[in-house]
Amino acid sequence: MSPIGRVFIVLNLVLAGAFVGFAGTHLQKQHNYKTLYEQEKDAHQKEADALKQEVARGVSERQAFVIAKTQRETEIGGLKNVLQAANDKNTRLEQQLSSVEGDLKQVNAQLVQANQQSSAAFTQSKEAYQMAIADQKAKDEAVRAKDDAEAENRSLKNTIASLTDTVKGKDVAIADLTKDLNENKLLVSVASTNGFIPALAAPPLSGTVSHASGRLCTISITGNPSNVDIADQISKRQFSFAIYDASGYKGEAVATSYHPAENAVTCNLLLVKGDIKEGDKASTKTP
Q1: 132-159 pLDDT, tens per residue?
Q2: pLDDT reported for residue 284
Q3: At residue 180, what are phi and psi to the nearest 5 degrees?
Q4: What pLDDT does residue 83 have?
Q5: C-alpha pair distances (Å), 12 with each of 3, 9, 123
Q6: N or C: more exposed end of the chain, with fewer CB within 10 A?
Q7: pTM of the predicted model, to two decimals?
Q8: How far is the CA of 187 from the CAs of 14, 121, 178, 191, in angstroms?
Q9: For 219-232, what is the mean pLDDT?
Q10: Long-range contacts of range 92-97, CB-CB < 8 Å, 24 or more positions apart?
Q11: Shortest CA distance to 219 belongs to which of 287, 285, 282?
Q12: In the prediction, which pLDDT does 48 show?
C-alpha cells in the first residue's frame, strides 16, 4: 500500500473516531436535555395542577363567601324587618296608650262629676268617696304598669270597664234618688192641694249656714225652742229649712242627717234662687 493510502486510512480512522466521539457526546447531551425537559415539564405540570387546584379552591371559597354574604344580608334584612315591625308596634302601642290615657282622664272627669252629684244624694256620699279612692288606686296602678305596653293596655281596658260600670252604677243611683225626690214632691203637692202645709210638719228649728258647697250645705242649729230630737225627726220625715238673708228668700235645704257633737244638720239644697253662702239664716218656719 502506498503511503498516501495509509494516510487516508489513518485520516478516515481519526475522522471516524472523532465522529463517534462527537456523536456520543451529542447523544449524551441530548439525553441529558431530554431528561431535564421531562423533569421541567413534570414540575411545570405539577405547578399547573397545583395552581388549578388553588384556583378551584379559591373559586369554591369565593362561592361559599358569596353564599354566606347572601345569607347574612338576608338575615340582616330579616332582622331589620323584625326591628322595624317592633318599632312600629311600639309606636302603635304608645299611640294606643296615649289614647287610653286620654279616655281614662275623661272617665276620671266623669267620675268626679258623678261623685259631686252622688255626694248630694242622701247616704250615698260615703260610698262615692270610697269609690273615688278605689278609682284613684286603679289609676295609680295603671301608671305604674306603663313600662309594659301590652300589660298596661289590658290593665287600662279593665280599669276603664270598671270605671264605666261605676259611672253607670252612680247614674242608676242618681236616677233612683231623683225618682224618689219626684215622688216626694208629688206627695207634698197632693197633700198641699188637700190643705196640708208642709212647713207645719217640720219641727221649729232655726240656725245659720256654716258651710255651703255645690248642692250641699251645713246648718248650725241656734234655736230649738221645743227641744225636739232632731235626729229622730229627720228619720221620720224629710223637712226643710228656708234659707234667707236681708235681701229675702234664697232657697230650700232638705235635712238629711244630724251631727250632735256639732249641733249641726247636713242638708241638700233645692229650689235655689240665690247665692247661698256662710252666714245666711235658716229656719223651718217662715221668718
Answers
A1: 678 788 778 878 877 887 888 787 788 8
A2: 93
A3: -60, -40
A4: 67
A5: 14, 5, 158
A6: N
A7: 0.34
A8: 170, 19, 14, 6
A9: 95
A10: 93/149, 93/150, 93/153, 94/149, 96/149, 96/153, 97/146, 97/149, 97/152, 97/153, 97/156
A11: 282
A12: 84
